[in-house]
Amino acid sequence: MKTLLIKNAFVIDPIQHISGETMDIAVRNGKIVDDVKNPDEVIDAQGMLTLPGGIDSHTHICGTKVNFGRYMSPEDMRAGRTSRKGDMHATAGYSVPTTYGNSYRYSRMGYTTLLEGAMAPMEARHTHEEFRYTPMQDCLANTLFDGNWFALQAIQDGDTKRLAGILAWYLSAAKGFGVKLTNPGGTEAWGFGKDVSCINDPIPNFDITPLEIIVKMIEANEMLNLPHSVHLHCNNLGKPGNYMCTLDTYDAIPDINDKRQSLYSTHVQFHSYGGSSWNDFCSKAEDIARSVNDKPHIVIDTGQVMFGKTTTMTADGPMEFNLYRLYHNKWSNHDIEMETGSGIIPVVYRKKNLVNAIMWAIGLELALLVDDPWRCILATDNPNGAPFVKYPEVMALLMSKEYRDKEFETLHKSTGRRVALPAIERELTWDEIAVMTRSAQARALGLIDYGKGYLSEGAEADIAIYPIDVDSTDPARDYERIINGFSTTEYTIKRGEVVCRRGTCTLEGNHSTYWVKPHVSPAYDMSKDAAFIDGFNRYYSIRRANYPVGEEYLGRNVCMETEASI
Amino acid sequence: MMKVILEVKERHKPNLPIEAECITPKNFLDPEREFHVWKGNKELDITDIFHVRKDGTAKSAEQVEITIRGDSSHIKRVGEYMDGGKILIEGDIGMHCGNFMSAGLIEINGNADSWLGREMHGGKILCHGDAMDYAGSGYRGEKQGMRGGLIEIMGDAGDFAGETMAGGEIIIHGNAGDMPGVDIKDGRLTIMGDCSRPCGNMSGGECRIFGTAYDMLPTFRNEGLTAIDSVQITRFSGDYMSRGLGTIYVANCKYMD
Amino acid sequence: MQEIKDMICPFCGCLCDDITLEIEAGKIVSTDNCCTIGNAKFLGKNRLKNPIKKIDGTWTDITYEEAVDTAVEMLLDADRPLLFGWSGTHGEAQCVGVHMNEILGGVIDNTTSVCHGPSILAIQEVGHPGCTLGQVKNRADLIIYWGCNPIEAHPRHMSRYTTYADGYFLDNAFRNRKVIVVDVRETETAKVADEFIRIKPGGDYAVLSSLRAILRGKSDMIPDSVAGVSKTQLMQVADMCKTCSFGALFFGVGLTMAKGKYKNVRNAIEFVDDLNRHTKFTLTPMRGHWNVYGANEVMAWMTGYPYAVDFCRGVAFYNPGETTAIDILARKECDACMIVASDPAAHFPRACVEQLRDIPLVVIDPFETMTTTIADLQIPVAVTGIDAEGTAYRMDGIPIKVKKAMDSDYPSDTEILTRIYNKMLEVKGL
Predict the structure, then answer these.
(1) For A32-63, how does the pLDDT look when each residue is reduced to its tens digit (9 = 90+)?
(2) Which of A406, C97, C261, C399 pairs with A293 at a CA distance of 20 to 30 A?
(3) Parallel, antiparallel, or unpaired for β B103-108 and B42-45?
(4) C221/C268 same-domain check
(5) Does domain A53-446 have CATH number 3.20.20.140?
């Protein structure tokens, strides 16, 4: 029973409605408790901003696609190489670092929970293998269903309950967490080199549209009572004029969960583009933000772009092929039979490139124009918009108009005519930043019930203590201090233990994997469904018996069991 | 002027490579500087590997001349990031000599191992003997190799000389191996002798071959005869498997039909 | 007699997972669904009984504990140890190997450097348009085998994924699917192809370049014959590729190890890239060892590089041609070596084998092999897929749990490597 007392912490904990109170936090056996006597360890956090551990609700850090990014990019590994030192293993890489590199750098920024944004169930074992070497954070994996043949067939047959049964089987088999749709229908069309243009475009070989996939998946998701909503990467990513597709999608989303959102719409910056070509490309963030403001059942993350080198990677295979044709850079594609696709290309976002400058502005506009920070999450879709190490800079930009204006000066000269950013005065508060980097994630992912995202009794003791004295820091002016302060914690605490101290990590972070296991009635149990088993063994290239990921791949884990209504 | 003489000591395991990127003229300007070299996983003081003699003083790298004596054929990364001054190698030199070099002169009396002047930006490397593979090339996964400066090889070059070359000049007085100038984008590659399969996927720049190009690739277009320094030579454009914006001059060529 | 179904064959990169084994009295007595090579592996003999150490030129039986101590001493003594092999063991053991190499300050390399290393170098230049094998089975109406002979090297590849495998969009694969074979000789696979392209040795690059120029509308400049292939045939093949609805190009060491090596593969990849502007096309290297792809995956997430990683200076450095086992050995640039689950003495050039013989050499392998004869110490282990289990990655990146059929007294690779690693930590005071 290890105990820890953090004294004099300056706490912001939006879930508990604590907005900057100096208080003590007691920890016993990995959980926050009311009080501890004679603690084993005492930390004096006098004058230090203390927040619940950071949560990234959409990042690409582990799995087949991420690892292929590493595999194909020895040039990326030239940066960020460190040797084994103390408890820390060797690391390498900048935009696609090694698993240890990701884990240590996130930990240094105070992040304790990470959601891998796209896991093909057929390759789930790989994601879990890498989770094991991401020791400083708890990990969850969104599971891809956008082109799943059994799911598409059930939708075509109008059988939403069967669809839910299929989702349940795959989620448990893959040890996944949430239902992810990436360019629904588009990845199936890409199987023959095609794409869909928006939600009403019929999908080749299936008599359904992307819209039907999205809506039926939301219904099925809620039948399973999953902690998280459907997590959607909209159709038509990255194309001029795609904001209409995004708005149409939002208009069609039903509001069917009273506890949380019905849809998590990810990296919305990439879906908020106006114009009819790259020549008249412009921001439509205002239209998107207005739509989100009107729809309390939708939560978004921003997908902020920051300037510099990075690697784009997504299950959206056709989109990556378009990028390849645009940039002529090296291109990898990896279709996953019966399930989904994926693609990777390295990119450089340049300040003097008008399109890139507009993209940068759109992400900020979304964060500033969506009124409710609980429904607008800060993320770069790491590493697509930028590597996650840029988060502190994004926070500073949102907290300081002066910093935004200074950066804006350095961009392509025409940017101002295509975006609304210079006119936006809003500067986000400490509380809002805390919401957008952990509390909103905990709520959107349904993790509050599992003790994440807050600091009161019973919560997991995941705590980030930053060397920022809020009382003496004016974020509007001292943005350099914001960047430095959020870049390296004084202490990162994971399940009650200090795992990172001023940037130096200790080896074992007491990691665990969170996964869902919905219980369905025997009629919808696919492991006993003859048609499912027969189709599986006929069309997959591995046997159904060899498909599920065993619990031996998880080590310490939290199985989130739910009772489905089917 | 400062003269530095580094004489390689006799070694117990002579084939184990020594990494000595600390050997650049600029580094010797600081009298307090410690010089470390690596023998495999052991970090050693430079005096464990070399007899070191320093004479005179210098205010800038340009006033420093380093001489390397003895068996330096397994000493790697000499002159990496060199930005001025001179290094004279009396014998052979190991891999990666002159990596990222931007100014100054490296003169090698013997042979150079592979990756001579990799990703070089400027300055000059003069190799009196042969150079192994990848002279003036790039690094794995990078788009650009040598970007500026001059590499002159008096003997032969191995395979992939000037691979992904994007600027500067390479002159090979002897023969080159297979695929010189493959994926070349810019710069000039001159081969006085023979080679095989020059400039596959060429997208820019110029290559001149005064000997015979064996297994000439079929995707270069013969643009007719011309003359360079009164030598009759055929001009080709290509590579037409991609955009075809480069030029090769070839005195003789043979195809694999 | 016990029958176990859905077992995984630990022989080649196909990782067939539909094997049935029959077990009697703690021994596998027969297999079903296996190819002949896999069958031989399951029924393999020559397993070493216990660790052996060469003392004054003769083999002496020792205990596992003594073997671990000896291995630790040999490797910690070295200035530049080389840890090679890895493709014949499971991923969990490979992870231990990487951790071990971090503290040893050695070079870790897998057998990729002697098979598809050039494929990886090419992918690092231009990427990899690929897919899983089931995608090919369900969709591909055109298959190209370039420089590979699956009938002999991957015997079930054609029946599980291509020529004879019916798929969702091809209910009669053999009739609806065209097969092109490109090789320097008429192999068994070539004999069943719809189109055989015979290339002169060393001509792959020129033929690929010509096909790409034809795709770009430059057929006028292509001569009547390129490296033994007629222009007529080139035109026909380019047309077949352009007009199929899903093409899949598989290639083997015939392409990767031919003159020009990785530039051949790069040209093949860019040919496939170009074809994607016309139709759907993918490319897959025919990986040899059952878990060589896993070795690449593990090393990529652990070190940042898929093979040939030099940790001598603490941070990872990668430069195939310099940090690859074959180059290090030929240049005598290492002074101790550990081989895990591989038999380099059977495949490496003579200069490399001589160097292995001349330096302290630890072998971790279940079987007596050619490499045993030049080793100083061999530690026998359980065979993954028979009496050990662990993760492997198929040639297309699909991770599969390789199950065990029975228990034995042998430690697994993971167990023995963990013991060696822990002992090293102890000796180094870490």
Answers:
(1) 999 999 999 999 999 999 999 999 999 999 99
(2) A406
(3) unpaired
(4) yes
(5) yes
Q: Do C102 and A89 touch (CB under 8 A)?
A: yes
Which other chains touch chain B, taking contact as 3+ CB pairs less than 8 Å apart?
A: A, C
The helix/strand/coil state of B86 is strand
CA–CA distance, A340 with A318 (Å, rounded to integer): 11
| Residue A509 in this model has a pLDDT that exceeds 80 | no
Where among C257, C285, C313 does a domain terminate?
C285
Whether residues B2 and B105 fall in one domain: yes
Residue B149: what pLDDT?
98
Q: How many CB atoms lie within 10 A of CB A441?
A: 28
Q: How many Å lie between the alpha carbon of A330 and the closest alpha carbon of chain B?
A: 9
A122/C311 touch (CB, cutoff 8 Å), yes or no: no
- Candidate from C205, C225, C331 with C-beta closest to B200: C205
| Average pLDDT, integer, range C41-66 | 93
- How many angstroms separate the CA of residue C314 from the nearest CA in chain B? 8
CATH number at residue C256: 3.40.228.10
The whole-number average pLDDT for the span C228-234 is: 98
The residue with greater pLDDT, A509 or A331, is A331
Per the confidence metrics, is the pTM higher than 0.90? Answer: yes
343-382 in C: which are within 8 Å (CB) of B?
A: none
Domain that holds residue C394: 46-114+290-428
What is the per-residue DSSP string for B95-149?
TTTTTT--EEEEEESS-B-SSTTTT--SSEEEESS-B-TTTT---TT-S----SS
**Backbone angle region of C127, left / alpha / beta, with phi > 0 → left and psi within -120 to 50 → alpha:** left
The answer to whether residue C38 sits within a structural domain is: no
Convert the pLDDT of each residue in B126-160 to its tens digit: 999 999 999 999 999 999 999 999 999 999 999 99
Contact C107, C308 (CB under 8 A): yes
Is the domain of C98 the same as that of C226? no
Chains that touch A (3 or more CB pairs under 8 A): B, C
Chain A residues with CB-CB distance to B under 8 A? 72-76, 78
Asked if residue C173 has pLDDT above 90, the reply is no
Strand ranges (DSSP E) for A230-286? 230-233, 263-265, 273-274, 282-283
A contacts of B140 (beta carbons < 8 Å): 74-75
Residue C127 has a pLDDT of: 97
CB of C189 within 8 A of CB of C252? no
* Residue C196 included in any domain: yes
Contacts of A75 in chain B (CB under 8 A): 139-142
Residue A88 pLDDT more than 90? Answer: yes
Pick among C92, C102, C132, C283 to test the A interface (most A CBs inside 10 A): C132
pLDDT category, C45, cuts 50, 70, 90? confident
- Give the pLDDT mean for A322-326: 90
Same domain, B1 and B77: yes
The verdict on C104 touching B (C-beta cutoff 8 Å) is: yes
Q: Which of C200, C213, C331 sits opposite B240 (nearest CB)?
A: C213
Enumerate the H helices of chain B as residue ranges.
46-49
Check: CB of residue C304 under 8 Å from CB of residue C26: no
Q: Does B257 lie in the same domain as B138?
A: yes
Question: Cβ of C106 and B219 within 8 Å?
Answer: no
Domain boundary among C285, C315, C330: C285
Residues C335, C232 share a domain: no
The shortest C-alpha distance from C423 to chain B (Å) reads 19
Q: For residue C405, is it within any domain?
A: yes
Q: B142 to chain A: nearest residue by CA?
A: A75
Cβ pairs A/B, distance under 8 A? 11
Q: What is the pLDDT, as a whole number, of residue A1?
A: 65
Task: State whether B150 and B250 are in the same domain.
Answer: yes
Question: In the structure encoding, which two tokens stand for residue B103, read together?
Answer: 């100014």
DSSP one-letter string for C177-217: -EEEEEESS--HHHHT-SEEEE--TT-HHHHHHHHHHHHTT
| Number of domains observed in the structure of chain B | 2
C407 and C298 housed in the same domain: yes
Domain count along chain C? 2
ipTM of the complex: 0.96
Mean pLDDT within A437-449: 98
Cβ contact B218–C121 (<8 Å): no
CA-based nearest distance C4→chain A, Å:
12
